[in-house]
């Protein structure tokens, strides 16, 4: 998990969220860190400022628990490879990753899933990844403010109902696009870092 000290050191800007009153539950195989976003929140996964992402999307669909389970395996592999590469480029800047077993790295992220439909009818799954400590960190910060009672971010599970958009953040935030037909990750990208 990302330490609170490390998270405070990252200059992050929350752009906004798409929210909805309900979401579909999926198996809690990763300690409750995986969610299929509510239908009304899915379009908001396409809002980005620190990384590229899918274009030409014409609609959305709801991935099943089986879709998510299969995607998780491929995303875990892509994430571990991307972290290996980032760490190789900047060992000093990523020492905290080196202190943990490589096999545990993918478990350091929450994942938000949304099904994408393209104009040509093709369907993929978009995975919005965020550092596991970040939702709690934000809800604690908001909870200390005067408006905490009415702010949706004050609730620890806010990320289950809202697509997260963060500027900056580096390896603590990623986007991945998964093709359920070929069962492979088509694109993977971390946020940029200031």
How does the SSE layout of this entry go?
Layout: H1 4-9, E1 13-16, E2 34-36, E3 57-61, H2 65-89, H3 95-98, E4 109-118, E5 123-131, H4 134-143, E6 165-167, E7 173-179, E8 184-190
Parallel strand pairs: 2-4
Antiparallel strand pairs: 1-6, 3-4, 4-5, 5-7, 7-8
SS summary, helix count: 4
CA radius of gyration is 16 Å
Spell the H/E element sequence: HEEEHHEEHEEE
- The pLDDT mean sits at 76
The number of strands is 8
Low-confidence stretches: 1-25
Oligomer: single chain
Shape: globular
Termini separation comes to 22 Å
Question: Can you characterise this structure?
Answer:
- Helices cover 23% and strands 25% of the residues.
- The protein is α+β, with helices and mostly antiparallel strands and 194 residues long.
- The strands form two sheets. Strands 2, 3, 4, 5, 7 and 8 form a six-stranded mixed β-sheet that branches. A two-stranded antiparallel sheet has the order 1-6.
- Strand 7 (173-179) and strand 8 (184-190) form a beta hairpin.
- The protein is globular.
- The two termini are 22 Å apart.
- The model is unreliable at 1-25 (pLDDT under 50).
Task: Based on the model shown, name its key terms.
194 residues; alpha+beta; six-stranded mixed β-sheet; two-stranded antiparallel sheet; 4 helices; 8 strands; 25% strand; disordered N terminus
Compact description:
The chain is of the alpha+beta class and 194 residues long. The chain is built from four helices and eight strands, in the order αβββααββαβββ. The model is unreliable at 1-25 (pLDDT under 50).
